[in-house]
């Protein structure tokens, strides 16, 4: 914004002093800060972190898949006779 | 069930090739380096944490001891991140292996001891005999102090291994108990599930505390020898 020093009072009177205008000014200020400093690599950091953790868990699950097969519940066969029934 | 309890601590292989090296190198991806003046939130938070930890840990050291700052900060970051990643489901934790912890503890301890013997030989030898010892106790105390010196790296390694392994085993057992109780008594399963959640929170704390304790003890050994 190009405002000359002599035009400062008239520029200041042009401000929007309504509550809506004040809130809008703060929002614009925060958005300027956010766009300049925080949104630099935002997509990269969030996607990278959760993507890495998920890929790491999936990778380890695939490695331990063979051992996990033993822990699955087995259905009992219906044709088997028990020892108690034979006695 | 006894066999399955310890299979999670076996070193992982893929088609016969050990992939432990990849798992050990994985935490380094989570600490990106940047050459920007103002970084993103992740790097800023990490830098702030590292500065806070290094100031708190290295404040007691003199100039010679502060040359170990990079080593000790790398150590605490590595052990902390490895322990925390080990809390993810199905993951392998390298710090549950005694071989790895001994590989970290022995060189660091030996480095501090050799540094002490090289630069301050008299002070290093004086550690073998506490002040004010009665004369007839001197031989026994020298032997005891020598044994306690050589036990330091073993204690460092075994402490880390035992804490992390015990925590993982408890999580396995209580998780298995919760699953088994779901069909029998859902209310009891809910109680064991709450215990599991509390235990997981405890394990998060233990993971970070054990990293801090390991690094702090190495730092103390360094302080005694510099």
From TrEMBL, chain A:
<keyword id="KW-0496">Mitochondrion</keyword>
<keyword id="KW-1133">Transmembrane helix</keyword>
<dbReference type="Pfam" id="PF10206">
    <property type="entry name" value="WRW"/>
</dbReference>
<dbReference type="GO" id="GO:0045259">
    <property type="term" value="C:proton-transporting ATP synthase complex"/>
</dbReference>
<keyword id="KW-0597">Phosphoprotein</keyword>
<comment type="similarity">
    <text>Belongs to the ATPase F chain family.</text>
</comment>
<keyword id="KW-0066">ATP synthesis</keyword>
<comment type="function">
    <text>Subunit f, of the mitochondrial membrane ATP synthase complex (F(1)F(0) ATP synthase or Complex V) that produces ATP from ADP in the presence of a proton gradient across the membrane which is generated by electron transport complexes of the respiratory chain. ATP synthase complex consist of a soluble F(1) head domain - the catalytic core - and a membrane F(1) domain - the membrane proton channel. These two domains are linked by a central stalk rotating inside the F(1) region and a stationary peripheral stalk.</text>
</comment>
<dbReference type="GO" id="GO:0005743">
    <property type="term" value="C:mitochondrial inner membrane"/>
</dbReference>
<keyword id="KW-0999">Mitochondrion inner membrane</keyword>
<dbReference type="GO" id="GO:0042776">
    <property type="term" value="P:proton motive force-driven mitochondrial ATP synthesis"/>
</dbReference>
<protein>
    <recommendedName>
        <fullName>ATP synthase F(0) complex subunit f, mitochondrial</fullName>
    </recommendedName>
</protein>
<keyword id="KW-0472">Membrane</keyword>
<keyword id="KW-0813">Transport</keyword>
<keyword id="KW-0007">Acetylation</keyword>
<keyword id="KW-0375">Hydrogen ion transport</keyword>
<keyword id="KW-0812">Transmembrane</keyword>
<keyword id="KW-0406">Ion transport</keyword>
<comment type="subunit">
    <text>Component of the ATP synthase complex composed at least of ATP5F1A/subunit alpha, ATP5F1B/subunit beta, ATP5MC1/subunit c (homooctomer), MT-ATP6/subunit a, MT-ATP8/subunit 8, ATP5ME/subunit e, ATP5MF/subunit f, ATP5MG/subunit g, ATP5MK/subunit k, ATP5MJ/subunit j, ATP5F1C/subunit gamma, ATP5F1D/subunit delta, ATP5F1E/subunit epsilon, ATP5PF/subunit F6, ATP5PB/subunit b, ATP5PD/subunit d, ATP5PO/subunit OSCP.</text>
</comment>
<dbReference type="GO" id="GO:0046933">
    <property type="term" value="F:proton-transporting ATP synthase activity, rotational mechanism"/>
</dbReference>
<keyword id="KW-0138">CF(0)</keyword>
<dbReference type="InterPro" id="IPR019344">
    <property type="entry name" value="F1F0-ATPsyn_F_prd"/>
</dbReference>
TrEMBL record, chain B:
<dbReference type="Pfam" id="PF00119">
    <property type="entry name" value="ATP-synt_A"/>
</dbReference>
<dbReference type="InterPro" id="IPR000568">
    <property type="entry name" value="ATP_synth_F0_asu"/>
</dbReference>
<protein>
    <recommendedName>
        <fullName>ATP synthase subunit a</fullName>
    </recommendedName>
</protein>
<feature type="transmembrane region" description="Helical">
    <location>
        <begin position="189"/>
        <end position="222"/>
    </location>
</feature>
<keyword id="KW-1133">Transmembrane helix</keyword>
<feature type="transmembrane region" description="Helical">
    <location>
        <begin position="164"/>
        <end position="182"/>
    </location>
</feature>
<dbReference type="GO" id="GO:0045259">
    <property type="term" value="C:proton-transporting ATP synthase complex"/>
</dbReference>
<keyword id="KW-0138">CF(0)</keyword>
<dbReference type="InterPro" id="IPR045083">
    <property type="entry name" value="ATP_synth_F0_asu_bact/mt"/>
</dbReference>
<keyword id="KW-0999">Mitochondrion inner membrane</keyword>
<dbReference type="InterPro" id="IPR023011">
    <property type="entry name" value="ATP_synth_F0_asu_AS"/>
</dbReference>
<keyword id="KW-0066">ATP synthesis</keyword>
<keyword id="KW-0812">Transmembrane</keyword>
<feature type="transmembrane region" description="Helical">
    <location>
        <begin position="98"/>
        <end position="117"/>
    </location>
</feature>
<comment type="subunit">
    <text>Component of the ATP synthase complex composed at least of ATP5F1A/subunit alpha, ATP5F1B/subunit beta, ATP5MC1/subunit c (homooctomer), MT-ATP6/subunit a, MT-ATP8/subunit 8, ATP5ME/subunit e, ATP5MF/subunit f, ATP5MG/subunit g, ATP5MK/subunit k, ATP5MJ/subunit j, ATP5F1C/subunit gamma, ATP5F1D/subunit delta, ATP5F1E/subunit epsilon, ATP5PF/subunit F6, ATP5PB/subunit b, ATP5PD/subunit d, ATP5PO/subunit OSCP.</text>
</comment>
<comment type="similarity">
    <text>Belongs to the ATPase A chain family.</text>
</comment>
<feature type="transmembrane region" description="Helical">
    <location>
        <begin position="67"/>
        <end position="86"/>
    </location>
</feature>
<keyword id="KW-0375">Hydrogen ion transport</keyword>
<keyword id="KW-0406">Ion transport</keyword>
<dbReference type="GO" id="GO:0046933">
    <property type="term" value="F:proton-transporting ATP synthase activity, rotational mechanism"/>
</dbReference>
<dbReference type="GO" id="GO:0005743">
    <property type="term" value="C:mitochondrial inner membrane"/>
</dbReference>
<feature type="transmembrane region" description="Helical">
    <location>
        <begin position="137"/>
        <end position="158"/>
    </location>
</feature>
């Amino acid at each position: 914004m190009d405002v000359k020093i002599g035009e400062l009072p008239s520029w200041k009177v042009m401000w929007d002093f309504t509550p809506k205008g004040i809130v809008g000014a703060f929002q614009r200020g925060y958005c300027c800060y956010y766009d300049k400093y925080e949104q630099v690599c935002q997509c990269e950091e969030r996607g990278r972190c959760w993507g890495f953790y998920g890929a790491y868990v999936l990778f380890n699950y695939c490695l331990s898949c063979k051992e996990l097969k033993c822990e699955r519940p087995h259905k009992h066969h219906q044709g088997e006779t028990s020892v108690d029934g034979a006695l | 069930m006894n066999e399955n309890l310890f299979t999670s601590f076996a070193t992982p292989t893929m088609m016969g090739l050990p992939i432990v090296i990849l798992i050990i190198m994985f935490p380094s991806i989570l600490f990106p380096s940047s050459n920007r003046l103002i970084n993103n939130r992740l790097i800023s938070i990490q830098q702030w944490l590292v500065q806070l930890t290094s100031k708190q840990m290295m404040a007691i050291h003199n100039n010679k001891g502060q040359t170990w700052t990079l080593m000790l900060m790398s150590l605490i970051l590595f052990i902390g991140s490895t322990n925390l990643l080990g809390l993810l489901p199905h993951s392998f934790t390298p710090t549950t292996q005694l071989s790895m912890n001994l590989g970290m503890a022995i060189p660091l301890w030996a480095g501090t001891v050799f540094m002490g013997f090289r630069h301050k030989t008299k002070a290093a030898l004086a550690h073998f005999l506490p002040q004010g010892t009665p004369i007839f106790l001197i031989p026994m105390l020298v032997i005891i102090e020598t044994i306690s010196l050589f036990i330091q790296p073993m204690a460092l390694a075994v402490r880390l291994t035992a804490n992390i392994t015990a925590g993982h085993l408890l999580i396995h057992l209580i998780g298995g108990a919760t699953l088994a109780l779901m069909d029998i008594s859902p209310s009891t399963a809910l109680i064991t599930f709450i215990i599991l959640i509390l235990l997981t929170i405890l394990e998060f704390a233990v993971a970070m505390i054990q990293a801090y304790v390991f690094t702090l003890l190495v730092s103390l050994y360094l302080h005694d020898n510099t």
